[in-house]
Amino acid sequence: MKVLVINAGSSSLKYQLIDMQNEHVLAKGNCERIGVDGLITHKTDDGKKIQYEVAFPTHKEAFMEVVKVLTSGEGKVIGDVKEISAVGHRVLHGSEVYKVSTKITEKVIEDIESFSELGPLHNPPQAAAMRACVEVFGKDTPMVAVFDTSFHQTMPEKAYMYALPYEYYEKYHIRKYGFHGTSHRYVSARYLEITGKRPEGTRVVVCHLGNGSSISAVKDGKCYDTTMGFTPLDGLIMGTRSGAVDPSVVTYLMNKEHMTPDEMSDMLNKKSGFLGVSGLSSDARDLVNAKNNDHHHGAQLACDMLRYQIKKYIGSYAAAMGGLTAVCFTGGIGENSSELREECCEGLEFMGIELDKTANESASGSEMMISAPSSKVQVWVVPTNEELMIAKDTVEIISK
Ligand code: ADP
């Protein structure tokens, strides 16, 4: 069975075609600059890379191009579109309604559109990609929606509520939702799978560290708490996002700098984080180079802030869950930066975390245990695979 996985952003549409018999990626690519002009990059499993410009006025044209490039020309990997048995769509926000992945119907698409206020950059294009998909494939190809928020729906009320007047929860659904759920679910489940552990009794902290970063506490295989909140702005310092700040800073600065709500949101989402603190770059590699080679203060500070915050969350989530079985690192930074992993674990020996430095240095990008055999708490690098998780959910749901 071949499953097409679609991840639509505001101006992009990423895709992967996965053969679920062996979980092999036949082709993957990205349509960029949708609504601007259009560029597609397509890679096949036998190493071909094709890139060309093509007009993408909307997500529909991009989706049609994906089908074309998969079935014809140099990048062809299947003979006919009918070979695609199902399509799995990544969806940012499922509100409190979608607690698990769901088969897509017209009602589901309408619901996803109706959550657009909660996910303004992602939900509208994701719904548009679903509609485009229905138009191109017809109604016979089943589609499944996999929500970034679903995994976190198991958080207890005490973890997801903000201490605001309760009416705002009732009126506007203001609460912590959490994001990167597909990654947190994949990594925590994969850890249990590799180690042959049953979920009951395990307490795992998953650190997803990339351009966007979040940490989750996974107790008995279910999400107990997470760092992102009502939106993906909360929690850790990120590439351009501030992470948690005292809310008074927002009102104070708006008054002082005469900022509108949109300007404030822009500053917090796009001009803060690594970029804002370092004044240099939003990319973690640039910061590591600048601090190590040029002793750049801002770069050093941004890196110090990240590792300090990660350490605090590991400690607080261990306390919240009443113990710690394992810490798993994933995402571009978590998978590739042995330096950061070492710094995050430094000084946590009192909690039973003992890193194997040699294993840590050789682990980059691969699935590997990086704690010493004597470590009470295991530490792992588990490269995330959200696309595979989406494809697996898709197969499971359409087979029901
Ligand atoms: P996204 O959140 O967009 O999916 P990724 O998970 O791909 O992002 O992570 C991108 C981040 O990972 C960038 O900040 C990049 O610099 C960082 N990164 C990749 N390799 C390394 C490395 N070896 N050391 C430090 N950071 C790295």
UniProtKB/TrEMBL annotation:
Gene Ontology CC entries for this record: cytoplasm
Binding site for Mg(2+): 7, 386
Subunit structure: Homodimer.
Main location: cytoplasm
Active site residues according to the UniProt entry: 148
Designated name of the protein: Acetate kinase
Pfam family, one: Acetate_kinase
UniProt: substrate binding residues: 90
Domain of life: Bacteria
Subcellular location: Cytoplasm
Cofactor: binding details: Mg(2+). Can also accept Mn(2+).
